[in-house]
Specification:
Structural class of chain B: alpha/beta
Helix content of chain B: 40-55%
Number of strands of chain A: 23
CATH superfamily of the domain at 416-532 in chain A: Fumarate reductase/succinate dehydrogenase flavoprotein-like, C-terminal domain
Strand content of chain B: 5-15%
Radius of gyration of chain A: 22 Å
Strand order of the largest sheet of chain B: 2-1-5-3-4
CATH class of the domain at 416-532 in chain A: Mainly Alpha
Mean pLDDT of chain B: 96
Distance between the termini of chain B: 53 Å
Mean pLDDT of chain A: 96
CATH class of the largest domain in chain B: Alpha Beta
CATH architecture of the domain at 416-532 in chain A: Up-down Bundle
CATH architecture of the largest domain in chain B: 3-Layer(aba) Sandwich
Oligomer: heterodimer
Number of domains of chain B: 4
CATH topology of the domain at 416-532 in chain A: Methane Monooxygenase Hydroxylase, Chain G, domain 1
CATH topology of the largest domain in chain B: Rossmann fold
Number of strands of chain B: 16
Strand content of chain A: 15-25%
């Protein structure tokens, strides 16, 4: 099995908000940095984030401060967040948004010329900094500009498939060049995982096609601990129509700017569920409210609720929600005049690779940041905290990886493991009979959407677990690529991703079964009232190769759960 | 019954294929379907190895640009028409990796050359105070998602990478507009051949974010260059000097139309309308017979035509090259002349026979005059074909009777089609002429290379662009190419020298048919 070996000091896997930020930070240490990007540089899912970035600058509401941001984050997270991580987030967010401005970001301004801030769900003050409703795009463009100023070597359309471990420490990564199908080994002194989430394991999702959980799968196989995998945020407002746009994000900024939710009787139904905060209740709460309306027959014709912003002055909608206007125009709706139809869509993984305050994992030399990590957001992530997460922990992971890389030399790599890995990937091309990745994928995503959804119950989830175990045993080893071509072959790419999707889905479902009570985004219709849920579930691959799960105590610094 | 869309996809795997080839697929149509949906359908149902890029499906990431029926588009935001066949090809200019996937390395190299980031010479103090007004213009051109679609159909990039293309020129303007950036981006724009752009607006049409790149980037940088004291090319400057001196951009050769006409009034019995006629420089000084033809066509359709004796250049060459002083002066004069005529002769519509002039009156004069005095000019501006079809109405047009038995194609002037939204009307006019066999040119909206000061200042580049255009026109197999702009007509005549292809201006042809019908 032929492969090429490429050397670097630090390897960053992933090129979204966190990956780019990590690479920039690492490169500032006079080290050779390579950033792998599964997509073209700048096309990562971060660009799709719309509403904004939380930072308690107090530019609009002067009483805001990191302390309040912390409280909102913990109560919003249903008290199971890692409070050490949350403290760092709220402390460092301000410096990181200034970094973005230094790099050239253009945020919208207050009348005094400072960064403007808007209302978002579950926040005590107007805290969310923004660039219209294309904040993620603004950040992604800025980071792309900044990367082009650095010495970072970007390998785009290169897909990492396996973390290489030598004597328990990180030593490199196996990867496939998607453009030409070459096998590559990257040897690095330290590695940062910034691989994003896995919304695509659900059939309805706001996520880009690349968000399939590669990082969760790879980290699990390498021996990392993963935390809170059952905690999936269903964003309450995804598009319903047309079919091809189903699940596409309708930003929380619509509600932040004053949008209201209505059922088919024209009632502002949030009044029934959360009268104090109405549309700005937690994302999990709003999602459940919408689904309750739908299940009880008060939904819109296409199975959602109405979201209306038509009562606001057109100029405000045009200035602050320009992408929404465009997005619904494509669907034939003028949101300045008529309501949108919305329903929940799989959006964000609160869970992920377990990291410490230095963004370190339990594997020496392996760091992680962004959505692929878990613990920071607890049971529910506040809108605007994810972009903040990418910048704060992106920078920390880059700095930690640099510090580590300076203290060690390259380790050797196990060439037998490498050969086996590439043989595994090659075999998908050579198989004569088997299951097509497209079929396998739709079976999996439908299963997850049906059985491990917003309203969860034991028998559904147990069914999903059994199915996933079967898929892992019967389907994964039999994935077959229709056309055995290595040069840019999307069928092959899907096949390579599938194993990660199954692993991720299994972690989600198994943890969800283990958590018997309701907490945050994990809502059981058959909740055990005795299970208050003040613990984290940590998953790890056991010595025997079986998935091991345990309940860990919460990491608490300031706020004791009620 | 479900409709199927015949979709041809350009397939190519350089490992195994010597040449790219088109492969046809039948795709089941669904309402609201996008080109991305079509590609995913093919990948799902027929061939999972079909290579194309996509990520967000929401017009936010800029991965999925392909050529859709010859024009680059972002696939996820391009709706499919149920009755139209689809031809999907990779972007032009960038080499192909496989099928619809281009190698974007050239774009990255080209981008890096302009140091595409905010350059600073000292550490900023936090918080940085930046006022909304300072970033208002910047905000607009900041929406770019780097899909590279505009590079594909740019007629200048097609000829040379000396010009970095719309997306990258836009980035230079974005940095020039950023109060924090300390580099001399105007000098950089000069070095990056900002004067190569013909302002054809193809990029604006293609842009999924509708960024007005020619106006907000190219012309902005040119105006800043002029302000900074960079001289225009002598070829361009000569026209502007002429405008300032005489009110015409070209010098007199034969008796000008306005002198020759002798009267301002061309009135008919029982008129159904009355218009003013803005001749523009070329019709007045170079194409006098065309001017008369136009008056004749309008009169025959029972329209009074008023031709003010003293007219002034619209100063399109000044606006396009960044000489805003000349531009403003002309806008004021033109407005004054026609507002006087409007009052004296009681009409409210001005017909313009030149695409460049019409666009300048609409896009430059209107906002400028409105900004200066609070109200825009009192008259409406129409292109001739637009006036005939949209105001007179097809059913009321006096049918031309003289047969013209030719295969005729149409060249759409950039400043008419994309400049003023006049696309079908000239073709409708053509089709009214008996004997005409209209042949559609799928590349009819490709720039001829004359505009934006390029013919005046950069003749060689202009000719290269023209030669590419020529190939497309000749591919139609027509006997004659027609257009609706004197400037394009001149460029087309040059381009077709030594060939059999005839070149005509549509009102001329229409007048000819009327005359023939009289006999």
């Amino acid at each position: 099995m032929d492969y090429k070996t490429i050397m670097c000091d630090i390897l960053v896997v992933g090129a979204g908000g966190a990956g780019c930020r990590a690479a920039i930070e690492a490169a500032a240490n006079n080290l050779d940095v390579i950033m792998l990007s599964k997509e073209l540089l700048g096309k990562a899912h971060t660009a799709m984030a719309e509403g904004g970035l939380n930072v308690s600058l107090g530019n609009v509401d002067p009483d805001d401060n990191p302390e309040t941001h912390f409280k909102d984050t913990i109560s919003g997270g249903n008290y199971i967040n890692n409070q050490k991580l949350a403290e760092i987030l709220v402390e460092q967010a301000a410096q990181r948004i200034f970094d973005l401005e230094d790099m050239g970001a253009v945020f919208d301004r207050t009348p005094e010329g400072k960064i403007a801030q808007r209302t978002f769900g579950k926040q005590s003050w107007r805290r969310t900094a923004y660039a219209s409703d294309r904040t993620g795009s603004e950040i992604m463009v800025t980071l792309t500009e900044a990367i082009r100023k650095t010495s970072v070597r970007v390998f785009d359309e290169v897909f990492a498939t396996k973390l290489l471990i030598t004597n328990g420490k990180i030593s490199g990564v196996c990867a496939v060049d998607l453009k030409y199908g070459d096998y590559l080994v990257f040897r690095a002194k330290s590695v940062v995982m910034a691989t994003g989430g896995a919304g695509r394991i659900f059939s309805v999702t706001s996520n880009a096609q690349l968000d399939v959980g590669d990082g969760y799968g790879m980290a699990y196989e390498a021996g990392c601990e993963l935390i809170d995998m059952e905690m999936i945020q269903f964003h309450p407002t995804g598009m319903v129509k047309p079919e091809s746009a189903k699940g596409r994000l309708v930003t929380e900024a619509v509600r932040g700017e004053g949008g209201i939710l209505l059922n088919n009787k024209g009632e502002r139904f949030m009044n029934r569920y959360y009268p104090e905060v109405m549309e700005l209740a937690g994302r999990d709460q709003v999602a459940r409210s919408i689904m309750t309306e739908v299940l009880e027959g008060r939904g819109s014709p296409d199975g959602g609720a109405y979201l209306s912003i038509a009562h606001l002055p057109k100029s405000i909608v045009e200035f602050r929600l320009e992408s929404m206007i465009e997005q619904f125009e494509d669907a034939g709706i003028d949101i300045r005049e008529e309501p949108m139809q919305v329903s929940p869509t799989a959006h964000h993984f609160m869970g992920g690779i377990k990291t410490d305050e230095d963004a370190g994992t339990i594997i020496p030399g392996l760091f992680a940041s962004g959505e692929c990590t878990g613990g920071l957001h607890g049971g529910n992530r506040l809108g605007g905290n994810a972009l903040a997460d990418t910048q704060v922990y992106g920078a920390i992971s880059g700095e930690s990886a640099a510090k580590y890389a300076k203290s060690v030399s390259h380790l050797g790599v196990d060439r037998k493991t490498i050969t086996q890995e590439f043989e595994r990937i090659e075999s998908m091309l050579n198989r004569k009979d088997g299951i097509s990745p497209a079929d396998a994928r739709s079976e999996l995503t439908e299963l997850m959407w049906e059985k491990v959804q917003i309203f969860r119950k034991e028998e559904d989830m147990q069914f999903a677990v059994n199915e996933l175990r079967r898929i892992e045993k019967e389907v994964v080893p039999n994935i077959k690529v229709d056309v055995p071509v290595k040069r840019f072959n999307p069928g092959w790419h899907q096949a390579m991703e599938f194993v990660n999707m199954v692993l991720t889905a299994r972690m989600v479902a198994e943890a969800a079964v283990m958590r018997k009570g309701s907490r945050g985004a994990h809502y059981r219709v058959d909740a055990d009232p005795n299970d208050k849920g003040y613990y984290n579930i940590v998953i790890k691959k056991g010595k025997d190769g079986k998935m091991e799960m345990q309940k860990d105590d919460l990491v608490i610094t300031k706020i004791t759960p009620p | 019954m479900t409709k199927t869309i015949k979709t041809s996809v350009l397939r190519y795997n350089p490992d195994s294929d010597d040449q790219p080839y088109l492969q046809d697929f039948d795709v089941e149509y669904e309402p609201g379907m996008t080109v991305l949906d079509v590609l995913l359908y093919i990948q799902d149902k027929f061939d999972s190895s079909l290579a194309f890029r996509w990520e967000c499906r929401g017009g936010q990431c800029g991965s999925c640009a392909v050529r859709v029926n010859k024009t680059a588009r972002v696939a996820c935001r391009t709706k499919v028409e149920p009755d139209e066949d689809l031809v999907l090809e990779p972007l032009e200019k960038m080499p192909v990796i496989k099928d619809l996937v281009n190698d974007m390395a050239q774009v990255t190299y080209r981008l890096r050359r302009i140091r595409p980031y905010v350059a600073r010479d000292k550490k900023p103090v936090h918080p940085e105070i930046i006022h909304s007004e300072q970033i208002e213009k910047l905000r607009e051109i900041r929406k770019c998602i780097e899909c590279s679609a505009c590079l594909s159909n740019c007629p200048i990039v097609h000829e040379t990478w000396d010009y970095p293309g719309p997306m990258i020129i836009r980035q230079i303007a974005r940095l020039e507009l950023d109060p924090r950036d300390v580099e001399d981006r105007v000098a950089m724009a000069m070095n990056e051949a900002v004067y190569s752009c013909t302002t054809c607006k193809m990029c604006e049409d293609i842009c999924p974010k509708s960024i007005k790149i020619p106006a907000l980037a190219v012309e902005l940088l040119r105006a800043k260059a002029v302000e900074a004291g960079y001289p225009l090319d002598p070829g361009q400057q000569a026209f502007l000097d002429e405008v300032n001196k005489t009110g015409r951009s070209v010098t007199v050769k034969d008796t000008p139309l306005l002198e020759d006409l002798g009267t301002e009034e061309f009135l008919v019995d029982n008129p159904r309308g009355r218009v003013g006629f803005f001749t523009g420089c070329l019709i007045d000084y170079r194409m006098q017979s065309t001017g008369k033809a136009l008056i004749d066509v309008l009169n025959r359709n029972h329209i009074d035509v008023i031709v003010p004796k003293e007219q002034w250049c619209c100063a399109s060459p000044a606006f396009r090259t960044g000489d805003l002083n000349t531009g403003r002066d002309s806008a004021r004069r033109v407005t004054e002349i026609f507002e006087k005529a409007v009052e004296k002769y009681n009409f409210d519509t001005v017909v313009v026979a030149c695409a460049g002039c019409g666009k300048t009156l609409r896009e430059d004069h209107y906002p400028l005059i409105e900004e200066e005095r609070g109200t825009p000019p009192t008259y409406k501006v129409y292109d001739l074909a637009e006036y005939m079809l949209d105001v007179i109405g097809k059913e009321n047009i006096v049918p031309p009777k003289g047969e013209i038995n030719l295969k005729i194609t149409y060249h759409e002037p950039c400043h008419l089609g994309r400049g003023q939204g006049v696309v079908d009307q000239p073709i409708e006019l053509l089709k009214l002429i008996p004997g005409v066999e209209y042949i559609d040119d799928p590349m009819k909206d490709r720039c001829c290379g004359a505009g934006g000061g390029v013919r005046a200042g950069y003749r060689e580049l202009s000719q290269q662009i023209a030669n590419t255009r020529k190939e497309y026109i000749e591919e139609t197999g027509a006997d004659m190419v027609t257009t609706e702009c004197p400037f394009c007509t001149i460029q087309l005549n040059d381009m077709m020298k030594g060939t059999e292809m005839k070149v005509r201006y549509i009102p001329d042809l229409l007048a000819e048919s009327y005359k023939k019908g009289d006999e």
